[in-house]
From TrEMBL:
PROSITE patterns: PROKAR_LIPOPROTEIN, TAT
PANTHER family membership: PHOSPHONATES-BINDING PERIPLASMIC PROTEIN
Pfam families the UniProt entry points to: Phosphonate-bd (PF12974)
Organism: Natronobacterium gregoryi (strain ATCC 43098 / DSM 3393 / CCM 3738 / CIP 104747 / IAM 13177 / JCM 8860 / NBRC 102187 / NCIMB 2189 / SP2)
Stored SUPFAM superfamilies: Periplasmic binding protein-like II (SSF53850)
Domain of life: Archaea
Full protein name: ABC-type phosphate/phosphonate transport system, periplasmic component
Signal peptide: none
InterPro entries noted in UniProt: TAT_signal
Amino acid sequence: MVQKPDCGGSTRRTFLKATSGVALATGVAGCIGATDDGAVRFVLNPAEEQTDILEEYTPMKEYLEEETGATIDLTRAGSYVETLEALETDQADIADTSPTAVPAGEGFADVLGMRTAFGGALYFSTIATTPDSDIEELADLEGGLITTGARMSTSGTLAPSVMLSEAGIDIGDFPEGDANDLEIRTATDHDTSRERLVNDDDIVAAATGAFASAPQIPQEQFDEYSEFVEHSAEYDDAGSDLEDGEPELQLLAVSDPLPRAPIMARSEWDDPEREDIEEALLAAGEDDLIPDDVDEDYELWFTGIQDADQSDYEPIQEILDELGLEFQDFDDDE
């Protein structure tokens, strides 16, 4: 790892590849989360979708400042890996991270809470086809062309890769290389993966997070997946876009439940405001995170934060182990 001057240092064996520097969307020179006023440094993951994450998190920042009296500086990191690196090297006190960051952060980053959406702390991947295809189950995808989300997206690519493997399809070295039994094309995000299925006749199936596919899948197709019905925030909305004339999709499979993304803190951060911020995060309601006056284009994708710890992310570690991935493999994509 490249050591950045005046940005703290790592006291443990580094888990990251050397990088040439940190790209900041805010244009701040020097360190991620650098601040001269003693503010709490809150670093944000770059979103997979094209969103203004700094704008989206501003209501949370303002809520936390009002509740705790702390001053909070928001900074967007250039990659998933850089977000966790900021916690390891004392460039951040708190961070919005991906689920895949939790196993890699053991020993220097703590899970403060798990983000929830409309009461649901778990989310799901789907693999879907079109109603006029002759694909009836995942095994039928052998020899075909499918699309997935971003190469290292947990719900768009990693969980679906395990689903394919468990169905008996040889995925080879994917997502780091090519699959053997079918062709897989990654997209930039979940919506693009879904749209490719609809618009490209050569593509026979699409993997996405359920939040991107469920509105175009008739609700009754999910009924055999009891965990999805019980836990998914997307179940009630399943099929809703069909009323607006959107193309119908045919469900092939739903993943096991996945823990939603965490809010993490630097383990050695022991300033008095840490406890106050943690309490405020866990007490935050939807109105605190998404006030009525927020433009819908800048709304957070989650509505609350519930208590969680590293053990809640064991399913993510199992996915990484199954695919032979380590967290540094995420650096090239983001």
